[in-house]
Sequence to fold (450 residues):
Amino acid sequence: MRDDLRAQYGEERLPRYTSYPTAPQFSDAIRHETYGQWLAAIPGGTTASLYLHVPFCRSMCWYCGCHTTITQRDAPIVDYLEVLRREIGLVSDRLSAPLPVSHVHFGGGTPTIMEPAEFIGLIDLMRQRFSLGAGAEIAVEIDPRTLTRTMTAALGEAGVSRASLGVQSFDPVVQRAINRIQSFEQTARATNGLRDAGIRGVNFDLIYGLPHQTVESCIETVRQSIELRPERFSVFGYAHVPTFKKHQRRIDEAALPDGAARYEQAEAIAGALIQAGYRRIGLDHYALPEDSMAQAQVDGVLHRNFQGYTTDPSDVLIGFGASAIGRLTQGYAQNEVVLGRYAERISQGELATAKGYALTADDRLRAELIERVMCDFRVDVQAVCSRHGTTPETILQAIPRLRMLERDGIIRLDGNLLSVNGDTRFLVRTVASAFDAYLGASGRTHSRAV
Fold:
């Protein structure tokens, strides 16, 4: 990495652009009444995706940036799942007809913290309330440390097709520094058990930029991981935001790698995975060549949503659970974050929407430009503008930052075709941010560009 580019761009705080506009732009101008109207307006037959948030864990990982609650008791989880079931009913009652569903994603927290029968019950409820076809992808995030054999069997019985396992790092020094002790044997046991249950799509989550992490420990983690041959990897840079996530204050900031070291770690992981036969997908995902995500990139139909890169093309994502975000054609809607407030709203028979955002025509244009840059490292600005009823000049001439990026060798502009240069693709979020009309004071809530 050129030192001048790292100094100029690497320390910028930028979104991951899993949505546009990003969550800091959401406001309480969007409440349950508006979200209810948006749901009712969804045409019958529209294919939707569902996201269910289960915000509970048995212990806190100090690097975590998710909305979750630590509990050793099952009662809070049981109570929450009852509220979640009621919300599914409230939402589906507002639809004009049961929607066909292509993707279901359970996120957390630790979704597999619930009892097996409860998980199967949730899948059955969704099959009753939506048209959940036999070919729908059902994905679940998993903590291998707490996954039981009975839960593994339940996942297979319920038709789960993809499992995402948190690994982060196998380095014991790093694990102690982030309060997540997880052996290779635990991970292997979980992976093999899932495959025995018929779940063929396995993803490992890795993180670089953690305290005491080195290039050598990153490569060793990859070496151990590829022994289990997961179909996909997600590789994220640690975002240290202790102002917003107070448990991150337990991490020794002096032990965190600087921007140059983070870049070296990310590229070392990339090199090791590519050498092992994985294809690099966008900024931070990797997949075996036969995987559907790799094929989607080849075909130019890769997308991004709140889970990162995805093969899901749906414009309708319905979120369930505390803090869950939904995306409809009209805009975004996010539920109450605080568990008690979320439960109270649902118990009153109203949707738990706390805030959201109504999309403008300009938002939709910029969102597509950002998505294509993030997914393809290139975008035909004229083609995108034509789909939105405008001309490329209205966007290109209004963004002087693009000329600066071109001058610095980060992008190439060939007429209306913008492409990110191969050796600067690690700055793709920087390029995407040029199209962001809102990026500014909220930057500290985001992670560093490198």
User: Anything to note?
Assistant: Residues 22-320 form a domain with the TIM Barrel fold (CATH 3.20.20.70). DSSP finds 16 helices and 21 strands in the chain.
